[in-house]
Structure prediction request, 365 residues.
Amino acid sequence: MMCLVRYIFITLVALFGSVVASAQEDMKLLVGADFDTYFDNREYSGSKIGESQTLFSSRLTPTVGVEWGERNRLMVGVDMWSNFGDVANAFAKVRPQIYYRFASPKVRAYAGIFSREEMIGDYSEVFLSDSVRFYQNRVQGFMGQYRGDRGFVELSLDWCGMYSHASREKFRVLSAGRYFLDNYHRRFYAGYALQVFHYAGSETIENCVVDNIIANPYLGARFSAYFDFDVRLHYIQTLQRDRANEDKFRTPKGAMLQLRMEKWGLYLDEQLYVGDDLQPYYSSFRSDAFPYGYGGDLYASERFFGTEDGIYNNTKIGYVRSFFGDTLSVNAFIAMQYDGYKWGTKQVVQLSVRLLKDVSLNKKR
Prediction:
């Protein structure tokens, strides 16, 4: 940890040294802090898939950086993690964030290590589960976004594993877009989400490349009838192959209907999936290196999409609201999940704080 602190200190010295040297009149100092708490209590007794457990953690991310030309930012921060109940480790993990961002009215570009919150795509739990969004909160690589009058599109490359003795080489390409079919009312829309996940070998594991590709086009409609409604119909097609154990691709697929109704921050979110097991390699092809299969190392999606009974239903009843100029946000819900065999429940509470202050560095003449 001390090496990381020294690295950040040296980076900050160089950063502010460049500020003094350039002395641009429109340059600003940015100072901020993000705080997140995640509580996830899962009760899946008797379920074929889910595992009962409780996740309870917090993350503090102080950040500092500079902005110049109104469109450029260079930011440095650090994620400091604490797992509640772990008295032996005050901070279970300490991980850096450092990135450059360009932002214009329609285009944004990122390079470096930045928060997953910067993504604007609609990636359902077929791609990223609630817990993965919290515990794997960083993107390491590049991202580009375009926002037009009738929609958006984004593309990101997350290099989440380096080829080494300790880890396998792996990267995830994510892309998403949405287009409103009626520009004036913005009620009907079409969109897509796409993942290309490459899971390769390491210095100790050879010839074990696994592909996990997901294509998810969808149609949606938004309207108000006392409640605010958002309805989407998804088609999900995957293309997966464990090259070390199979010669052919597996192509599990399915359909998903999502319905969300909301009023005064209270919401009902209904999700019904019907189709194949989207995680065929989760526990198959066990070896000395992977005695329980590839598991969550290969699949970042909600575990229940590995249903063997052809159906997964998830009903969330919750409350989401932002306060104090959107600096504080709360999302609390109860989820009732059915895996085709038995119902399970989980209770989730997420609290987030977002603070950012800019200070002009203009020289007085």
